[in-house]
Structure formats: C-alpha cells, structure tokens
Specification:
Blueprint (H helix, E strand, L loop, with lengths): L9 H14 L13 E5 L11 H19 L3 E5 L1 E2 L3 H15 L4 H4 L1 H15 L2 H9 L9 E2 L3 H16 L3 E11 L4 E3 L4 E17 L2 E10 L10 E4 L13 E3 L6 E6 L11 E4 L5 H9 L27 H14 L3 E14 L7 E10 L4 H9 L4 E3 L3 H10 L4 E2 L1 E2 L9 E10 L2 E7 L10 E3 L3 E2 L1 H5 L2 H4 L3 H7 L2 E6 L4 H15 L13 E6 L4
Helix pairs in contact: 10-11
C-alpha cells in the first residue's frame, strides 16, 4: 500500500476530483426537473482578464450559494460566461501592436484589425474561465455564453432597433465625456471623480471701452482661453452690474467678447467672473445655449491644442499647453496671480486619464422604466444586501441622465444604423438614417455607422438573453446576483431596467419582469 503524503498537494488532488464532477454532470442544470429552481448568472469577466482577489471572493460566494442550494434539494443553474470588453480589449491589442509592430488599427484597417483581435481572443481569451475551473467553481459549463455569440448579437441589435422605433434611442450633437487616450465617448458612469492638486490662474481681461480697466477671471484651464466666447457674472453681483452688456478683449487669440449675466455663476468662486468656454465645459455649454453663444473647439480628439492663431500653443498637449499659456499671459502682463488649488477632476474609468467635455454627435438612450425600476426595489421585489445600497440606487435613478451608448471603437456590437451615401429629400425632409437588424435593401447606397455600442448595452441583457426559452421558463427570474457595488449603475440598475422593459407578456412591476430577487454586494460595509 502506497504511503499517504504528509502534506496536501492540491495539484494532484483537485484537478482529478473536479474532472470527476464534470464527467458526472454534477453541475449541469435540468430545465425539466420538478425540483424548485435556484439560479445565478455570473457577472461576466472580460475575455482578457485574469482572476483578482475580488473575483475570487465574488465567485466563492456564488459557489457557496449554488452548492448549498443543491444540498437543499433544489435544481441549480449557475450560468457562466464572458464579456467581450470593447474598449479594454481593443486598448490591449492596440498597445501590443504599437509595441511589437509599430502600427495602429488605422494602419491595418477595420477588417484586418478585427482579425487580429480574434487571434488575440483565441490566445488570451478565457484564461479567467480556466482559473475559475481550477478553483472548483460549480458552474454549468455546458451553458457558457459570450456577449458576441451570434444569437446574443442579434438580441442586442433587436433591442437597439426596438428602442429606436419607440423614440427612446436618438442621435444628437451634445456635450459628452471624451477619453483622449482611447479616443471615444464615455457615459457619465464611466467617469471617476478624483481630487487633484493644481493651480487657479487669475487672468486679466481688458474692457474694450475702458482700456485701463480689467476684469480678473479665475480659471484652472488657461489653455482653453482661445475657445472663450463670453465672460459671465451673476446678475445680482453689484461689483459688475455696470459692465453687463459691454465687451472685453480675449487675452489669447485676441477678440472682442460680450460680458453677460447668468444665474449659474457662483459669485463666491474666484472673482465671481467666469470665462465661458461652451466647447470644453458642461456648465459653460449650458450657459452658451441660453445666451446663443458660438462654440469654438480648440482641442483635437487626442487632447492637443488646435489653434493656429496662437502658434506658441498650437499642437501642444493640453497639459503642456496649460503651463505655456500661463507663461505667455505672465509675459504679457495679463496674469495677475496664481494660487494653489485642489478640485475634483473627472478621469476615464477605462484609460485612467482626465476626460474632456466635448461637443460630439453620438447615439443616446432615454432610459425606459426608470420609475418601475425604483418601485420594484422599494416594494422589496428586489432586495439589496447591505440595504444601504438601496439609497444609492434610488438617488441615481431619481437623477438619471440620457445614456451615451455609442463608442468610437471597432471591437464590439456595431451599431445597426446606416447612412445614405447621397442624401435625398423625401417629403421635404432629409431621409438619411436607416436603422434595422439587417442592411437596407439597396445596401450599395448606404454606409454603416463605424461606431460600436457601449459594452454595458449588451451586458444589461445578460440575465435574460443568456438563457434559451426552456431554461428561462425554469430559471428566470434568477434567484441571486452577487456583484461589486462599483457596478451598481453600470450593470445592476440597467439589468433591472432591461428586465422590466423587454420581458414579454408581463405588465410593468410584475415580479416575473425582474431579472433577480436578491443582490449581494461584495466588499461592502
């Protein structure tokens, strides 16, 4: 008889037993079973991901719940899958191409670049799934799904078309969050506010009719002065009442600008005078809209200055331009002073660089079922643990903004919209956009939108579209969702909205509409 090892060697024990479980279909769910159902859909990890301690914690909890339910005599479905991770995967492949081949996706073209991503996916994708198996996760691997499965892609396209036909999806030119590194639009939820130490620059703007009189404007961004189209004060600020309606000289790219009054101005900030830069600030954009100000954009998509009128700044990176602009103003006697200043700056959750507010034509979604999504949590049809996350969830839904769903990346669900190559007049209006799951009949006269959909626009269907009709009939709504609180808006809230909007044959608010009953947030106090 072989001597028993004095130490436990997981490498020789665990793979053997896990394979025996798989061979015995121990984790396979039976949609025809008479046992009461218990189901979980895994928060789909990225195809290029590897396990973190957060993943280990999350999936351990799911595994405990699934195994406990089996011991209680329930039919258990723990449904696994992967997310294509649009921006993350494309960024990883582009970085590799630049480092190893010295080319960009634009050098390769869309078709070749996507082929390279598929090669990358075959090599690196699914590593995290193998790691989950190595941990012993009791998922039903026969039902593993992927957000770029053919039928899942069709489901995403159908949702887009349905929402467009309902008037809930629209295309418009609006102020959005722009990621200069990934060079794509982002939703508000993908912007992380971080405190940053910087400077407050007090810039002197000369009054046109009174050459010896200057208005001091406090700004953190002197590099965008060339895009100013007005300066503004609060209408009740008596310091500047006599100047409203007059003009000042813009100190860089010298030009006359109006002095306007608007209630959005905070008299307590700086000197109480705001430089209005509609192209590069959300508040300024709103002020500009109210006063019909022109929009001047002086930043490129990569965050460089585009202003030949100021050659000293033209072509500089935005942060280098900030320093140089302050130097130029100092040299011209137009910088009164500089003070240390700490403020919150929005960073891209994807590339971790400061975002830029930017005017851009994008696709947007007006959220359906926001009120119903609030009601199902307030009525405890869906329960959050810990319970305090219900307040965070409610606050977001009560202040919900239209979702910018288009992304300037090539990897992902391409937007099912086409634009006519030659615009034509139909009934006095231009007929130039075709939206459908398939190309228009005369496809040679149309060109498809280059953009793809926000990754979360596909994953908000995850709980429902990962199941076929028979599986759904048994296991949907799912019993539990285990996830991190950092994606309560990205994913949890949106899945609830999607469940309420797209589950057929049920009235809004019916318990069968919801995607899950309980949500456990990990790493939460």
């Amino acid at each position: 008889m072989a001597e028993l090892s004095k130490t436990y060697d997981p490498k020789t024990v665990e793979p053997k037993w896990y394979q025996r479980w798989l061979d015995a279909n121990a984790f396979r769910a039976d949609a025809k079973s008479p046992k009461p159902a218990f189901s979980i859909v895994i928060p789909p990890p990225n195809i290029t991901g590897v396990l973190t301690l957060g993943h280990v914690l999350n999936n351990t909890i799911q595994d405990i719940l699934a195994r406990r339910a089996r011991m209680q005599g329930r039919e258990v479905l723990w449904l696994p899958g992967m997310d294509h991770a649009g921006i993350g995967t494309q960024t990883a492949v582009e970085k590799w191409l630049r480092k190893n081949e010295g080319v960009t996706r634009h050098d390769l073209g869309r078709e070749e670049f996507l082929r390279r991503i598929l090669e990358w996916q075959d090599k690196h994708g699914g590593i995290i799934i193998q790691q989950l198996k190595r941990l012993g996760c009791s998922c039903d691997w026969s039902r593993q799904r992927y957000t770029l499965d053919a039928d899942y892609v069709r489901a995403v396209e159908k949702v887009f078309v349905d929402l467009y036909q309902k008037g809930l999806i629209y295309r418009g030119r609006r102020m959005i969050n722009w990621d200069p590194a990934a060079q794509t639009a982002l939703s508000d939820e993908e912007v992380i506010s971080k405190p940053q130490k910087g400077s407050l620059y007090f810039v002197r703007y000369e009054v046109v009719d009174e050459p010896s009189r200057f208005l001091e404007v406090a700004t953190t961004r002197p590099e965008t002065i060339m895009a100013d189209t007005a300066v503004a004060v609060h209408p009740n600020d008596k310091r500047y009442t006599d100047l409203v309606g007059k003009q000042i000289w813009r100190p860089l790219a010298r030009e006359k600008l109006p002095i306007i009054a608007d209630e959005a101005i905070d008299p307590e900030f700086g000197t109480g005078v705001l430089k209005v830069t509609p192209a590069h600030d959300k508040v300024d954009f709103e002020v500009g809209q109210r006063h019909k100000l022109p929009i001047v954009d002086v930043l490129t998509e990569s965050g460089r200055i585009n202003c030949p009128a100021v050659p000293e700044l033209h072509g500089l990176d935005r942060f280098a331009a900030r320093k140089r602009a302050a130097e130029i103003l100092q040299e011209r006697g137009l910088l009164a002073k500089t003070e240390p200043y700490e403020n919150n700056v929005g960073f891209s959750d994807r590339s971790e660089v400061p975002i830029e507010p930017r005017i851009s034509e994008q696709w947007f979604l007006r959220y359906p079922k926001a009120k119903e999504a609030l009601d199902v949590v307030r009525e405890n049809l869906i329960r959050f643990y810990p319970v305090h996350w219900e307040k965070v969830y409610a606050q977001w839904l009560e202040n919900i903004q239209d979702w910018c769903i288009s992304r300037q990346v090539w990897w992902g669900h391409r937007i099912p919209a086409w634009y006519r190559k030659q615009r034509s007049e139909v009934g006095g209006q231009r007929s130039e956009i075709y939206v459908g799951m398939d190309p228009p009949p005369d496809s040679e006269n149309w060109v498809q939108d280059e953009d793809t959909l926000d990754t979360w626009f596909s994953s908000w269907l995850w709980a429902y579209e990962t199941m076929d009709a028979e599986t759904r009939g048994k296991f949907y709504p799912t019993s539990v969702l285990v996830t991190g609180p950092d994606i309560i808006f990205f994913w949890v809230a949106r899945m609830i909205i999607a469940g309420l909007e797209f589950k057929p044959g049920k009235s809004a608010g019916d318990q069968d509409n919801i995607p899950f009953h309980d949500v456990f947030f990990t790493g939460a106090r």
